[in-house]
Write a structure and sequence with these properties.
It contains 17 helices and 14 strands. It has 490 residues and is α+β, with helices and mostly antiparallel strands. Bound molecules: iron/sulfur cluster and fe (iii) ion (FE). Residues 89, 99-101, 103-104, 190, 294-295, 298, 454, 458 line the site of iron/sulfur cluster.
Length: 490
Amino acid sequence: MIRTAEQYIESLRTLKTRVYMFGEKIDNWVDHPIIRPSINCVAATYELANDPMYEDLMTATSSLTGKKINRFTHLHQSTDDLIKKVKMQRLLGQKTASCFQRCVGMDAFNAVFSTTYEIDEACGTHYHENFRKFLTFIQDEDLVVDGAMTDPKGDRSKAPHAQADPDMFVHVVEQREDGIVVCGAKCHQTGSINSHWHIFMPTISMGEADKDWAVSFACPTDTEGLYMIYGRQSCDTRKLENAPIDLGNEKYGGQEALVVLDHVFIPNEYIFMNGEYQFAGMMVERFAGYHRQSYGGCKVGVGDVVIGATALAAEYNGADKASAVKDKLIEMTHLNETLYCCGIACSSQGAPTKAGNYQIDLLLANVCKQNVTRFPYEIVRLAEDIAGGLMVTMPAQKDFESDTVVGRNGETIGEICNKFFKTKENVPTEYRQRILRFLENMCLGAAAVGYRTESMHGAGSPQAQRIMIARQGNLEHKKELAKAIAGIPE
Ligand code: SF4
Ligand code: FE
């Protein structure tokens, strides 16, 4: 089944999700002006799936049921599916210029599907069957699921069991006949409030002493004992000002929150790992690999909009014919397409897992994300260079609209702003306002969470990729190649 955007938004109203912001409980969070843009953004994943123009990218045939489903709930069946996933993410980045949040669930589905298969094979458990049933339900209902991985981690030098506070990593506090009780939290969870369900996974490799922390499971977002504290974003209260031009992106935005598990009961059928610590690392590596691939799509789509806005800013200023400006736009495009190359490359070199779904090439996915920790910063630097200082010094929308008289001849604040911020003939000052506010939002405002800092830390901080690149780089093989050519015997 494929739901519509409206059905998705309405479905959120039926949940009893507990959301807190600025120290208070938010009852109608669906219509809250600070939260709503992030809901609109997830809704775009439904809207585009219903558009015949994007059917091939946005929908797929379920490997579990044979039914047509939203690609965000799909298990990748081929390298072609992996490539389409990246193209779908670029498309959504272009349409929303934000983080559309639904990829974390898709990446969790694919990682947990293959890992549970291998746990069962080694340990004789039944997690894979649990997961198949769960995912069939998610696909049939076309639900949004948060893939929750990042624990608070406390003292980084200590393993989960050695932390002063055991809640620094999600853990089992009670084993029951019918299920488990869990405590802990997950930090900066993308789209958690906007999700119908959550899948929890461990965040690091674990040893035997961490058995109680080696746990993976699913639960409804509004389950008893679970709540969220909204993660604020730069300039977020502008959304309360009723001045949409100053937002830069009025309709869409991202969302991160702290998700707390306070003695949450998980029935057996929703458990996907419970003590099999040897497989914690596999689940982490696979989820992170998929999400590092994801960034070669979503950030590229957002980058497309940033480049377009920069070119418009230059055009409105009358600077677009300058060769230096043209060259900077070429550089931005080169950097952005390099990220896309990485996303496509790790997808095209994918291979089937033992469970049958496809996984990306891990080395190339990690190279992809490592580049994402750098190139958007350079793209934004060039955008700010071309846009000029006005993107951070321009008066408010309310000034541009103000009737308050300030001039000797009765000019209003609005008239003065429109006089001095006018550039070329035929370019309304409002267009300039809009495009500069958009760039401000992308480079420094609420959207910078998703385009810049998330490029650095989302799907793992840069050092996490370097560890994987070291592991996958096969230096010994390279040494052999050099010896053979240089005539050095074994
Ligand atoms: Fe999707 Fe990108 Fe947001 Fe991750 S950061 S959820 S890949 S849009
Ligand atoms: Fe992310």
